[in-house]
Structures are given as C-alpha cells and as structure tokens.
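Encode chain A's predicted structure.
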Amino acid sequence: MYRKMSTKAVLLLNLGSPDSTSVKDVRAYLKEFLSDPRVLDIPSSSFLRSLILNYCILPTRPKRSAHAYSQIWQSEGSPLIIESRKLQENLQKRFNIPVELAMRYGTPSIPDTINQLKSKNILQLFIVPLYPHYAMSSYETVVASVMEHLSKDIQPTSLQPFYNDPLYIDALVKSAQPYFKEPFDHLLFSYHGIPQRHLRTSDPSRAHCLCVPNCCQVASPTHATCYKHQCLETTKRFVQKANIPPHKYSISFQSRLGRDPWLQPYTDHRFEELPKQGIKNLLVICPSFVADCLETLEEISMSGKDSFLQAGGKSFIQIPCLNNHPAWIQFLTQKIQSWI
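Encoded structure for chain A:
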C-alpha cells in the first residue's frame, strides 16, 4: 500500500470501453470517442463533424459494434478494462505511491480520476499513456485531456512513446517467443490504422511526411511524431531481436473507418491475399495495443481468422498483447522507478 500523504502519483491511461454491450452504452461510448476532434478530424467544422457523427455513424454503427463487443465480453466486463485493472494492481504492489487508472473515453474517466488525485494533495504526476507509438488520435489526445484537467499546482511528467525502447522490444519479443516454437509460414504485424492525413497533420514541418520519397526511412525530426515511422521501427527492432528473416514477416494496418485513404496495406485485405501467396500457417501480432481488446479479440482473432481460413489458410494464431506479461510489468516498473 502507498503512503496516505504521498505527494507523487502515477496515472496509467488507455483508450476505454463501453460500460456494457447494450446498444445504448455503446452509442454513448462511440459518441464520446468520435466527438474528439483528434479522432474524427473534420477541419474547421464542428458542425460537419456533428452532422457526420449523428446522421451517418451513430444511427447504425452502435448496433454492429454492440454485437462485436458481445463476442468478446467477459463476466467481469470489458477485456481492455480487466487487463488494465490487473496491470494497475500489479504495479501498485511494487510502489508506495498511488498508481491510478483512467480511460480517455468512458469510465473510469480522466476528470474523475484527477479529482481523486487532487483530493489526495498530489503535487507530482507521472502520466503513462499505454501507447507505444505517437498518434494524434491516441497518445496526443490522452495527454492533452490530462493536461486540460490538471490544476496548476500539480507538476506533470509524461512517459514518451516507447516504440523503440530496448526494454519494450524485449518485452514484446518475450511475449511472442512461445508462439515461435511451432512451425509457421509468416508473421503479420497488424498495427492500428490512422488516416493518411493524420501523418501530415502531425508533421510540424508540413514538408516531410508523405512528401519526401521514402519519408519513413529518411532521417528527420518529424519522426518524433510520425506514427508510421514508429510502427516500422518497432517492427525492425522486433525482427532483429527475434531473428525473423525478411521473407517471413510483413506489416499491415487495421480498423479503418470511412472512405478516406488510411495507412496501407489494409489488414483485412492481407488476410484474403496471403493464402493465395502460399501462406497457410499465419501468426499475427498487434504491437500498437498493449492490452487485448475489441480490435484484437474480435477484429483479428474472430473476423480476421474467418477471412484467412475462408481464403484457403490452414492455421491462424493471434499472439496475445502484452496484457500483464512479467516483462511488460518490469518495463513499466523501471520507467516509474526512474521518474521517482
């Protein structure tokens, strides 16, 4: 247990989840999520965003999403919340300062959690976004929300994106190694997708991302906020450490929404293409997620698996996210200890 008068605290942050699989709760969650201008970014027009959200998305998508959530829901609730709570509890056992948890959307909310910290007279806060990579719709929005609700007497420090941190890569490889013991044809790295325009928006120079040929490979300060570069770098470091040969892995992007171009290739397309290329035994890893959730359990392990097998594949395994793997807990422990 932490000391009651501690002036320091840690705040773990993730995306969030509906409170239940009811259409009502899923609609409320999606409305909050897609009302975020860093997610559904309609330039200079909150009216247009509201129009698209309320008349194009919310009338139909909540029912489909509620069904998807019902496929993965556990007796204790959302897998994302369950794994995040376990992580919080495991880290709290290691420290005598508060380790709190909040979600960008849904509960426990960032405002409510920060109010609890204020009541404990916290003066220094270590903000830990549970996102390895920088994106305006994940890392940026969660940090911005925390900063918006913090009082001036709390001094914040944020854990920076850790996509290339050797200890994170080590944890990722250790979590995957048991799945390499059996023969496999291919390892697909499926990262959460973002619209291509988000890369340009996050490029402070406005002249590198998607402008320079091979922009992700050309050294640039913009890589500090380039989601695609950071995904490629995670993959590069992973395969080097795990000794995966170049012909045995590839990268794709999942979970796109709308008709605008997103990062490619698309994961769902790859599931249909790979069997035609002779890939029959597939492993899939999702490094942009640190906890299993709708996007890994339903989109990949259920819908994705069905697509791959129907296209001619024979075996399909999604390597679980880091969840509460000891190496992942040790990575976060080391980061918190360094801050303390």
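The two ends are 16 Å apart (CA to CA).
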